[in-house]
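Customer ticket, subject: "Can you confirm the structure for Amelogenin?"

Message body: Hello, I'm evaluating your service for our small team and ran a test protein. I'd like someone to confirm that this is what the system normally returns, since I don't have a reference to compare against.
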Amino acid sequence: PMMPAQQPVVPQQPMMPVPGQHSMTPTQHHQPNLPLPAQQPFQPQQVQPQPHQPIQPIQPIQPIRPPVHPIPPLPPQPPLPPMFPIPPLPPMLPDLPLEAWPATDETKREQ
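Agent reply: Thanks for trying us out. I re-ran your input and got the following:
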């Protein structure tokens, strides 16, 4: 009974890998260029991003975050207040009357 029990178990094991290979063969035959280049670049890409991701992306993200926080602490607010009063507007207004002042002064003096 041992022999017959082993016999059916042995064919079951190889049967599993056989269907997997069979399904792979038709895919490769149908798209030999797609699966071949996709598998090759996939492996090197996964290996490179794994070791680089934890070191490169983490480092640049940390230094970029600190500078962004100190920038919006409200330093651009000081320049905004001076704009509100609009100090250049007052001097502009007197500029116009200043020109007329000398004209009236000259006419008054002449008169």
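A couple of notes from the result: The CA atoms of residues 99 and 105 lie 10 Å apart. The chain is about 75% helix and 0% strand. Feel free to reply with more questions.
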